[in-house]
User: What shape does this take?
Amino acid sequence: MNKLAIIVFLIPTVCFSQSYAPPAGQQGTTAIDKDSPLFTSWATGISVERGFVNIEDTTIEALGSNRTTFGDPQNALGASTGDPGDIVSLGDSGIAILTFEQPIINGPSFDFAVFENSFSDDYLEFAHVEVSSDGINYVRFPSHSEVQSDVQIHGFGLTDTRRIYNLAGKYRGGYGTPFDLDEIKDSIDIDVNKITHVKIIDVIGSVGESGTFDSFGNKINEPFSTPYESGGFDLEAVGVINEWVNTIDYESNTLEFTVYPNPSDGLIKIKTSNVQSCKIVITNSMGQIIFQNNYNNQKIINNVPQLNSGFYTVILSNKFTQKQQFITVK
Assistant: This one.
């Protein structure tokens, strides 16, 4: 729903033993800023099937329609702007299918991210995410909601994002929820190195009969109902991190680098070869990005901040290809 007002409802909380990544800007988050150099491209095509403003009573209308009408689907193409009005509202169970100039591939860490337009870290509306290699057969990312399902979260109620995993809309506007194709690499219906379509399906956040379930059979409780022309999941953009590159270009533009010392006491240097410009990303053992930067014509890179003890992946990429090395910090 397009956020036009803030009304706070107090929702009973339940303690769980498990929790997931915290909001954007906090330590351990997986949120990716819209301006991150990780993004190499954005969705270029879209089709939308609008959902109802209230799927539990389809006679309810907003601005003369029982389906959402806010936003042009073309708003969801191209780079994320962070503008809360630069979206398309899907409505209850609405669907958007996005396509790309080049296929998404299963690279190191996260491969793409979905942006919603929430005005805060805890007013959240969710969507399931599925991918396809042919536009016919889709595979859904496994999701988990630990939010209690006994008491309905009302239209402007709040959700702790640490109780949500693998649902688009986990983070506030301007920050993408990332997805890793490695999680579904064994699926027989898709080629994770040739993802041509991403499907976004609005979660029906009702704890009643119409509600949507996560991969564990739990009802997904989110603000419901939102009977407005801007109801449901508000799709702002889909950014690509790992995409297919031309094999001819790949062969003629080799990319080599060395990380030293390895093992390290926390300070490392990176020596590159055959590189005019490149991007360096370092992730920890949980796949979380702890450092990233772009470089031009540098053979020795030594401005990497000191790393804590642990295992890390150093990812070096240019417009042609991408390679990685693993390091240990004592």
In short: The first helix runs from residue 247 to 252. The mean pLDDT is 88.
